[in-house]
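Lines hold sequence, tokenised fold; shown next:
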Amino acid sequence: MSATTAAPAPGAAPVHIGMDLGTTNTKAMAVDAAGQAVCVVSRPTVWDRPRTGWAEQPAQRVVAAVDALLAEVVSRAGERLGAGVRVRSVGFTSMAESGALVDPAGAAVSPVIAWFDPRGEEELATLDPEVAALFPGVTGLVVSPLASFFKLRWMAGQGLLRPGAQWLSVAELVCHHLGADRFSERSLLGRTGLLDVHTGRPSALLLDALGGDPAFVPPVVGAGAPLGTVRPDHPVAAARGAVLTVAGHDHLVAAAGAGAARWGTVFDSMGTAEAFVAATDHVPDADTVATMVAGGLAVYPHVVADTTAVLAGTKSGLVLQRVLRLLGREDAAARAALDAAALAGTLGGDLDTGDVVVTGCRMSDFEVGVEVRGDGCTPEQVWSAAVSATTRTAEEVLGLMREAGATANTVVVAGGWAHLESIVRGRRALAPTVRLAAVRQSGVHGAALFGSWAAEQAERGAAPPEHPSPGPGWFEEHQATSTPDHLTTTHGEANEQRRTRRDRHR
């Protein structure tokens, strides 16, 4: 009998598991009773490409990956702690907009379509003009195929939207697979285009336009609700009976996990796409929300109590990647040397020399442009111009947020680009207080913290849908130190693990 299938021994160490179901990777982290990270494991997220531009995966693959990661993280946690473990909770965060239709028995009847898949474009063009005009002010989202609503209209055209069907996000889908009842977490529902952000309930207008009945959306809950427990026949015996919860949209969960979900704080998550998440204490009226959406913002429920999220995105990370590729400086050593040379060349001054202009950071930009305006251009100048372009775009985004009433007194920076000093220097201009997130894996760590909250609520007898979500102060009290490098393990990629360790120490 393997360690993962054997029942936990008396005195086994209690752990909470967080899982992040992402576009590129699916991660799992175990934290101990004090909230400190024990280990992290990861597997690539595999998408099928049935047509050009399309990306999907069968729901069975999603749940199988979760089962495999759960077994792996439990085994690894036992090795790290030198004893058996007992899982008290499992919390899930996930990419937004992606999910599956399930039948009345809970079985998936559609593939999981990636959020960036363009399906829904034709259905968008045929939407009633009156509904399209009301959509931004009601949902807090732009009229775009990114919203699940339009992919659901595509599914309806394929005959998949049958009587009794329900919509589950990927986090809700795997939670249900493990043994939870079916619920709809508010922040993830807020990214579908089915939520009225002013009432916090499904929109009758949008459900009618979709052709779905009110039961199409399961009961709505806030993040951190105890939704059930891992079923007693699950192969990972140490997880049986663990409390299950959906932590919510990954960007918001990362903000909470980094202690950046308080009003007046903006979380800057610098990945391939850069996401800015502001926290406000109210929902603006419909006209104001529509104006914010027209300016490039999204407005929907945050994962912390009594808070609304205002989110904006840029393509800054993609621009930086392409500039490094252009310069032939993609490997870690060359990237670090270029960054150091750019900083040395500025002698502590402005990174932007004006001789090179880089464009393409806005979400509406379709191409990355590099324009050289002077002679003798160096790679350091190109890199400095790219960094300056990302900073200017960030300033524009925060300006829009401030105009909309979302203050930005503090900016907390996280993500893969935050280890470069030139990036950090640029971000220092964004707000009176700018700091780096203490937790390196804030998304998956936040999901684990939500799991521990749900376990506490379950012990107190709380049951959805009436239950409290944690407030921002709770996360600040549970802040942990940065995840040690030796804890991170990417499944089957020992060489990549060594590269990651080397990168982080440069």
